[in-house]
Design goal:
The protein is mostly helical. Helices cover about 75% and strands about 0% of the residues. The chain has one domain. Keywords: Membrane, Transmembrane, Transmembrane helix.
């Protein structure tokens, strides 16, 4: 019985160590992604960089004037 309890305590200690390590990794990934998002949004405010960062901005094209469209 005592051997089972020691083995169980060992597994609990291993789980706690894994939990602490995975928590650190998740926090690091979260803060990295948050900082990347903030930097990316700041760069999107600069028109010269926006051309290189956004695929949609490059496909925007020239706005149409409704008077010049004859198909309507």
């Amino acid at each position: 019985m005592k051997e089972n309890q020691e083995q169980l305590d060992h597994y609990i200690a291993l789980f706690e160590e894994l939990f602490r390590a995975s928590t650190k990794v998740v926090k690091l990934v979260f803060w990295t992604l948050l900082c990347t998002l903030i930097c990316f949004q700041i760069c999107m405010q600069i028109p010269q960089l926006r051309v290189y960062l956004s695929f949609v901005y490059r496909m925007d094209g020239i706005p149409m004037v409704e008077r010049n469209v004859k198909d309507w």
